[in-house]
Amino acid sequence: MTSTSDHELGLLIGVLPAELQSAVRALAPAQLLEVVMDLGRTPEARLEGRAERLAGTPVGRADIDAVLTELSPVGEDNRTGIEGTLHRISVIRNRRGEVVGLTLRVGRAVVGAVELLRDLVETGQNVLLLGRPGVGKTTKLREIARVLADDLGRRVVVVDTSNEIGGDGDVPHPGIGAARRMQVPRPDRQHAVMIEAVENHMPEVIVVDEIGTSAEAAAARTIAERGVQLIGTAHGNTLENLVLNPTLSDLVGGVHTVTLGDDEARRRHSPKTVTERRGAPTFDVVVEMVGRDEVVVHHDAGAAVDRLLAGDAVRGERRQPGRAPTPDVPAAAPEAPGPARRSRAGNPATWEGPVLIYLHAISRDLLVRALRDVSVDARIVNNPEHSDIIFALRARADDQKIRRLAEAGRPVHTVKRNSGSELRRVLQAAFPTVPGMDDEVVREAILEIEQAIDRAVSENITVALGAQPPPLRKVQHRVAARHHHVEVYSEGHEPFRHLVVRPAGGDDFDEDEAAAP
């Protein structure tokens, strides 16, 4: 660490109770992330990958009050700092507004933290950083402001809501270089200060942290439309998170549902109701921060969103220090399953992970509500080639593509009409559940009947299953009812009654148990 960093860390340690200061100083300073003090609990230091207890006695109210007296007044965002440093201190309050917890987070200016992204910000494009808390978004944002202002000579204004970028106090921290800093009086005023910065101070670049409301998203679009370069961060780990966030999706163009005409739907080989990008993205480039030294770059945010909504793989560019950029694996694409997913066999209720459903002439909104009602682990995709199963309106199920996939073994479930009750019925048929029974028990019963059917057909023999209670036998009957090449009936008396599977052609069949409940 540099002497400046040592001095600033010393200022943070100096506000702690005396008995904690020596314990913190004994830790590796470069690994220290934050110190946590909660009333009635032992204090701890959080380092990279681990936590260290700092004392054997719990934190008392006098300890918390002693720290608060050393700090600037706490703002409406429950944050404060130490003047001249980048440290951030956040408070936790009880219902009466009294402080009962402190998080003292270490802030550092890291020269060179922007090298992975320098080529992006130098072009003048609008760049959005995404990542989990603590991954280093603000550190990179601070260094971007310094590089743009000092190395490239741009007029940079930092909109600093919690003084986290430019540090506490009226004089900005040297970590932002020659960039100017505008403080925000209250968190709900960040959008207004963003606009004020453009209107009053003629910036070429606006740098803003934590865009999190619709007003801030609208302000960001306004800034971009005025020709000012915008560098910011937003809540969310991946591009997918952003697209699914109705408040912030406008940052990458927004999403809306469009109903196509019959001819257009046939031309696209898609359902009549599709989800599309609404407009041009506010940010040209989206950077997913995987770690402090690893990012995934989406150079064309609009094209990436279009691919994601179409169910295609969203391949970014993975960057790490000292390595040439490489294409990213399509892990961020929720609708791009690999061959293992498309080759799933048996009943969907036995599969691991979410089942991917393609809708043909069926309302997406109705199925989303039905999925919530039935509590099924499933996701809707826009490309039938990427689906595990297909739900289709019966009158439209003769579509050539649907027939081809069905002939290839893709399960197709049909409904008579677009209604919530019909969709709940088909979901319950596709994903059998038994109220009051563990899902794993139901899954094992389904696997048992599937394996028995396969054996009966392949070996042309009769297969007896293990004894099951009536609810599980009904589930097994429903599964077997979809296999027309076998017959299933029950034998024995409770509690030893069980199912028997044999190739089609016999006479015995238990009508009562075979009926769907």
Number of strands: 24
Main β-sheet description = 9 strands, mixed
Class inferred from helices and paired strands = alpha/beta
- Tally the helices: what do you get? 17
Order of neighbouring strands in the sheet with most strands = 9-8-10-11-7-14-15-16-17
> pLDDT average, as an integer?
84
Distance between the termini: 70 Å
Radius of gyration: 30 Å
- Beta-strand portion reads 15-25%
Question: How is this structure best described in words?
Answer:
With 517 residues, the chain is of the alpha/beta class. The chain is built from 17 helices and 24 strands. The protein has a nine-stranded mixed sheet with strand order 9-8-10-11-7-14-15-16-17, with helices on both faces. α7 links the parallel β10 and β11 (229-234). The N and C termini lie far apart (70 Å). This is AAA family ATPase. InterPro entries: AAA+_ATPase, P-loop_NTPase, PTPase_dom, R3H_dom, R3H_dom_sf, Spore_III_AA_AAA+_ATPase. Residues 439-505 form the R3H domain. Keywords: ATP-binding, Nucleotide-binding. Residues 312-347 are annotated as: Disordered.
